Prior knowledge:
The chain is 30% helix and 14% strand.
Amino acid sequence: MGGRGLLRRTVLLIPALALAACAAPSSAPSHHPGTVARTGQAEVDIFGDSLAYQAAPYFNALVEASGQAKVDDFVFGGTATCDWLPDMRRVARTHPPRVVVMEFAGNTFTACMRSCIPESSSTISRYCSAMSQAIRIFLAVGTHIYLEGTPIDYRQWTVHDPHWDDLNRAFAQLAEVYPGRVTYVDAGRAVEGGDQAFVWMLPCLAFEPCTGPTVAGVRNDVVRSPDGVHFCPDQSGNPVGQVVPCDVYSSGAFRFASAMAGPVIGYLHLTRPAR
């Protein structure tokens, strides 16, 4: 998730082995109506790694602002899609959500990703296989699924990594298999510069705390961590991708969360109650 000024998300051919796990199944799960929480609120679940962990407080606040939805978080740094499959099956069985948001950047630290090299075709294939299972779990109970794209990091940008976006593209292609039921959201662009460049900071949003430096007369907020991967402006992740709660306002986490929350809010028609 790093950056270089002229890099574009051109469509590259992802290895056939990797895409095989993302191919359309012989038959799609039957559709059943989604459910709501016992309170009458729409149930929304988010599954993800450290990026989702840092974005979750803002995502929850945005989605729950109307009082018409409730969010449950299943997020932890360093995890992969396959780590959460048991929880996904349990959730679908016990309290199926109306919406599930899934954000995974390609970690290979945990046991279910053992032997996978980051960004390799085997990693993409294993993520596609796990995500396909996750999709079928939730489609069977009528859940709408959002697959989130993640931003380029500093290392990927500086080494001109041609494979940094492979997992995003694989998820986007997987979503196309289930039109109207699975949606890909390029949430990573919310913290990137032009042409999907890596940037340390972006101009302050009109309504947010503006605590970063002024550049060429424009006030900015820091949107990436010192490690060039995460969002907290003064904290980095550890060697296995784990983070602690950010101790300051995180513009990057807010922007990423907003990009994830917007489509959910629109899909569920969440509106603030009239005063």
